[in-house]
């Protein structure tokens, strides 16, 4: 899953990696609702990932191993390994994934 978030919107591309490359499963985007506009950037980035997860919840929770999320926000590594979460972050912690930092200039599939 590749995700990207701006001050006003979020988007994702869900793909499956095979021997022949990446196969597109889904993509989508939406504007932030008014309450989300005041979120700190790390929470907006995490919200973008969780929004993607909720759209594909049944599929992602059925996977036998953690799935990979590519993001241009390096601090999400902290969320995955953190033992202290805000109440909002704790609600978002049910999914088992690994996060890989990819600089924004290399994020070509999702651009907002």
From TrEMBL:
InterPro entries: DNA/RNA_pol_sf, RT_RNaseH. Keywords: Endonuclease, Hydrolase, Nuclease, Nucleotidyltransferase, RNA-directed DNA polymerase, Transferase. Residues 2-95 form the Reverse transcriptase RNase H-like domain. SUPFAM superfamilies: DNA/RNA polymerases. GO terms for molecular function: endonuclease activity; hydrolase activity; RNA-directed DNA polymerase activity. This is Reverse transcriptase RNase H-like domain-containing protein.
């Amino acid at each position: 899953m590749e995700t990207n978030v701006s001050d006003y919107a979020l988007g994702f591309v869900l793909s499956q990696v095979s021997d022949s490359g990446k196969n597109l499963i889904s993509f989508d985007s939406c504007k932030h609702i008014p309450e989300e506009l005041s979120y700190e950037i790390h929470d907006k980035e995490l919200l973008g990932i969780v929004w993607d997860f909720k759209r594909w919840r049944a599929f992602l929770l059925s996977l036998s191993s953690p799935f990979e999320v590519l993001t241009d926000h390096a601090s999400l590594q902290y969320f995955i390994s953190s033992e202290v979460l805000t109440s909002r972050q704790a609600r978002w912690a049910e999914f088992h994934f690994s996060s890989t930092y990819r600089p924004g200039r290399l994020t070509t599939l999702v651009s907002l």
